[in-house]
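User: My advisor asked me to double-check a structure prediction for GNAT family N-acetyltransferase before group meeting. I don't want to rely on an old file, so could you generate it fresh from this sequence?
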Amino acid sequence: MPSPNVFLRQATLEDSEALLRLLNQCYRDDVGWTNEAHLVGGIRTTVAEIEKVINTPRHYLFVFPQVTEGKETGDILGCIAVDFGQADNREHSSQNNDAYIGMFAVHCDLQGRGVGNQILQAAETFAGRHLKSEDTQGNARLTMSILSQRPELLAYYQRRGYVLTGKSMPFPVDGNNGEPKVEGLQLLELEKRLSAIGY
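Assistant: Sure, here is a fresh prediction for GNAT family N-acetyltransferase from the sequence you gave:
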């Protein structure tokens, strides 16, 4: 089955509930290859967190809306966030030359059909164009984090040119992103240099 054409637009507050359904299904329900149900229980995110992302300057959340007969149905088939603001708050950062990729999800019915590749490529292109104008020393990079016990997900991103930085942090236990089911769960940082995506 061919990959559908992916159209992305910036998320609005009206998308919050649909985004909540998509993200919680993709990460917490035991369906699709991206789910983390065996590692983390509870919610993946909240409406409040989604709305905060939408409203935060330099944090862009893009959605792939379902369209039938030229009109959006209200459902979201995929999403991805690009955050330029994390470098602003990084303790030792003197330049805003990072973009953090997060909230990446594709509806389980479309997984394995190239939709995720299209969405990630679009986010990388968007980030690259913005970072190129801000980066004066050639150090710009894309970063993301994945769970330490997801080797198949790590392999996917490595095929896309991301590499482990060696940095990690414990999975947060504040309850806003679920509760770990295994001991020692870590978030591993990956990066991709701007030069690797043609900028």
